[in-house]
Specification:
The complex is a heterodimer of chains A (343) and B (275). By secondary structure, chain A is an alpha/beta fold. Chain A folds into two domains: 219 residues, P-loop containing nucleotide triphosphate hydrolases (Rossmann fold, 3-Layer(aba) Sandwich), CATH 3.40.50.300; 67 residues, Alpha-Beta Plaits (2-Layer Sandwich). Chain A contains eleven helices and 14 strands. A six-stranded mixed β-sheet of chain A has the order 6-7-8-3-9-10, sandwiched between helices. In chain A, strands 2-1-4-5 form a four-stranded antiparallel β-sheet, with helices on one face. Chain B has one domain. Helix content of chain B is 76%, strand content 0%. The longest helix of chain B is centred in the N-terminal third of the chain and has 32 residues. Chain B starts with 23 loop residues before the first helix and ends with a helix. Classes of the chains: A alpha/beta (343), B mainly alpha (275). The interface between A and B is large, with 54 and 45 residues.
């Protein structure tokens, strides 16, 4: 036994006050993170929020500027080699070799991790089979579609069956059908007992896959909880109403408030009001109440919350306008740097 | 810990008993795996062989017919001087390609995966260098073959030529560390190529590779005397033309050793730091 061995049952990932500073900004600014064994933990945030930087620090790809990180109780800075043996990493950066075929790639990564040639070959074939890539086994990667490429990336991370997998934006840029297939693959991984830490820009992806979600913005964790907890903090959906007459606005707002107990957001110039719903069928309650008060509606839609809305609710600014001046006193993110510069 | 439902085994410690360092045997086998990868790449990009196939053929003919009369009176007398010089030059050119290709490789995603694998930090560097020894061998053999086709009769016989080729390969592998280091510090493949050529041309032309050093001005002779390439050229000449292991062979090997001792640690250090 080595002296780095940990007390049994330590979390898969445990990070305190992680900081990464680049030339002109703090890409990760004091993030705490605990991922329990066997769970799927989602890190949700817009482009440039610091998700990938954080993952790279945990994966020994970037030096940790401040704070500490442990993988299964092993200090990342002290024993990077041990951490690398516990990890499989898949992301746009850690990909496969484009000059090799799929089976050659798996052979390469198997051999590099100490599998004897025969075992490397059989393991490679099993993975190709599991990921539906058998027919493409001997094709050059350049002929692969985006989805096949991602599946091969993932397969290459699984050769030694690491207990912890990092998936950095596993479906960004994939079409909806391929994304669904990828989700199925990830769920199967978890059934095999893997712990998964995934980053994503999509709320629905975190919703579909993750047991718990941390929302990261400008290098800071702004919220953490289950998907339901996060969504209820935003309202699950929004009822958007446009009234026939702007004179009805105050009355309609009162009705909505009396039904749902929450003030709607009004846009009087457009005769529009947005009402946050806990459940979609609450829309019906509001509509019936409005009809009873003879308040005429010109149009209505029910919208699911987008990542933008979760962000608006959690941080007071939306995902596309990182430089938007903060008008929300609860916005604890003080750093107004342009997020495009973060990588 | 009560919320965990899926994990089949929460008490076992997966980190327990894992080695904290890569063993020497593993480093070797990982390097050979990386070399295998490099040979697969070579087979698919055949243009990687141009500098060790076309160039020896072309340069041998060109240099022999252009400089032969001026330097030695006629072509056949010039070949014993030229061929060993050209071998040094072609192998050095092939070394430049080693560094440039490494740089291109490092910009690709697969290198990040290499970095997160529990493998020796030196293997991704050393692997391609081992595979490139094949290219140095091709370059040296083809240069000899072209020379022989043009009428060169090496006095060292088969054994002398064989030893000369081995020395050329060792030289190539050693000097490749210089260009590999360039590869790890250069911003792009073009920059690496630029730096490398700036180093390679003075090293090969300001040596005794193409003309006898005695014909050069005094100050240049001093440089030529200390240029490691001169010693390699002289060593290859003595092996190929006389079949003799002269002191030059020792100097050449010592020079190679010094180059490795300086540039291998530099290359590995800057490679490990690179993200």
């Amino acid at each position: 036994m080595n002296n780095h061995s940990s007390p049994t049952g330590s979390p898969a990932v445990e990070a305190h006050g992680l900081v990464k500073e680049f030339a002109d900004m703090r890409a990760v600014d004091g993030v705490d993170l605990t991922v329990q064994r066997g769970e799927v933990f989602g890190v949700l945030g817009p482009n440039g929020a610091g998700k990938t930087t954080m993952l790279k620090m945990l994966a020994t790809l970037l030096p940790i500027d401040a704070g500490e990180a442990r993988i299964f109780g092993t200090d990342v800075r002290e024993h990077p080699h041990v951490v690398r043996q516990l990890l499989g990493v898949t992301g746009q950066y850690a990909s496969v070799d484009e000059n090799l075929t799929a089976s050659e790639n798996l052979m390469l990564f198997g051999r590099l991790q100490g599998l004897p040639r025969a075992r490397a070959r059989t393991t490679g074939l099993e993975l190709l089979d599991q990921f539906g890539l058998m027919e493409a086994a001997d094709k050059p990667i350049s002929q692969f579609s985006g989805g096949m490429r991602r599946r091969l990336d993932l397969a290459a991370s699984l050769i030694t069956r690491p207990p912890l997998i990092f998936l950095d934006e596993p479906t960004t840029g994939l079409d909806p059908r391929t994304r669904g297939e990828m989700w199925t693959t990830i769920r199967e991984l978890v059934r095999d007992g893997c712990t998964v830490l995934l980053t994503t820009q999509y709320l629905d992806e975190a919703d579909q896959l993750a047991d718990r979600i941390a929302v990261i913005d400008r290098g800071v964790k702004v919220a953490e909880g289950t998907s339901d907890e996060l969504k209820s903090s935003v309202g699950r959906s929004t009822l958007q109403l446009q009234l026939v007459s702007s004179d009805d606005m105050p009355a309609a707002a009162r009705v909505a408030e009396s039904v749902l107990g929450e003030q709607p957001v009004l846009t009087p110039e457009a005769r529009r009001m947005n009402i946050a719903l806990q459940r979609s069928d609450q829309a019906v309650d509001v509509l019936i109440a409005l009809r009873e008060q003879h308040l005429a509606i010109e149009s209505m839609t029910v919208q699911k919350p987008s990542l933008d809305e979760v962000f608006l609710a959690l941080t007071g600014h939306d995902t596309s306008e990182p430089d938007h001046p903060s008008d929300d006193p609860q916005d604890d993110v003080a750093d107004p740097h342009n997020l495009e510069t973060v990588r | 810990m009560t919320t965990i439902s899926r994990s089949p085994d929460v008490t076992a410690d997966p980190a327990a008993g894992l080695p904290t360092h890569v063993s020497l045997a593993d480093t070797f086998s990982q390097t050979m795996t990386m070399a295998w990868r490099a040979t697969l790449k070579m087979r698919r990009n055949f243009e990687q062989f141009f500098d060790v196939t076309i160039q020896p053929l072309l340069f041998t003919a060109m240099f022999a017919y252009i400089f032969g009369g001026a330097v030695s009176g006629d072509v056949s007398k010039y070949l014993p001087i030229l061929i060993p010089g050209l071998i040094a030059q072609t192998v050095l050119t092939a070394c430049v390609a080693t560094g440039v290709q490494l740089r291109e490789d490092m910009d690709k995603g697969v290198f990040d995966r290499f970095r997160v694998l529990p493998i020796s930090r030196i293997a991704p560097l050393a692997g391609p260098m081992v595979a490139d020894m094949l290219r140095y061998a091709i370059a040296a053999t083809l240069t000899f073959a072209t020379g022989i086709a043009m009428g060169y009769r090496p006095g060292g016989g088969f054994f002398g030529v064989f030893c000369a080729i081995i020395l050329a390969i060792i030289t190539g592998w050693s000097l490749a560390w210089v260009f590999t280091w360039f590869g790890t510090v250069g911003k792009s493949a073009q920059v690496v190529q630029g730096y490398s050529l700036m180093v390679m041309f003075p090293l090969t032309f300001l040596s005794n590779a193409f003309v006898p050093a005695s014909t050069l001005p005094d100050w240049l002779q001093t440089f030529v005397k200390f240029n490691p390439v001169s010693h390699v050229v002289s060593a290859v000449r003595s092996l190929a033309n006389q079949g003799q292991f002269t002191g030059e062979v020792g100097w050449a090997l010592l020079g190679c050793g010094i180059v490795i001792a300086i540039f291998a640690p530099l290359a590995v250090r800057s490679f490990s730091r690179k993200i």
